What does this fold into?
Amino acid sequence: MDLNGARTAMSGRFSDVLAAAKNGEEWAWEAIYREFSGPVTGYLVSRGAADAEGLTGEVLLNVARGIHGFDGDSKKFRSWIFVITHRCLIDDRRMRARRPISAELSEAYGGDVEDEAIDRLARDDLERLFEGLTVRQRDVLSLRIIGGLSLRDTAEVLDMQVGAVKVMQHRAIATLRDRLMREDVTL
It folds into this structure.
């Protein structure tokens, strides 16, 4: 997929998928899930969501609730999904700040230790990579690279001007490049 999000697996048949999803067709919802669950989860992980997979489910539930009101092409749909994603992330952070979940409660449910370790490593790598970037720079890079949004769509999600997104992206990339050069990392 390119940075502008123009190429997607369902872009050629988007109108059919949208119409079928609005009619409750299971195959259409499976196509939407396959197309967007990975990028949405990736964005949420990159932004430090405590439960990225749970929030992805919430995002897709909100998409299902609001799909009848959606009107637009595949690029607008992608942008719309990331608006929902960003808002769910903000709401989740606010809720957790008001009512933190105790470690005992979260540990009581357990899970697959190997999956949790891999998730933690991926999250640690992202956090390390994003050290030194501002919150807005992290948002911009996550939406542009992981979410595959255009400059205009990123600006819409973050309620910013396109020029501000360009500047934010340029500064973030320059910061990353300088840091990688100081650490003598080759890609």
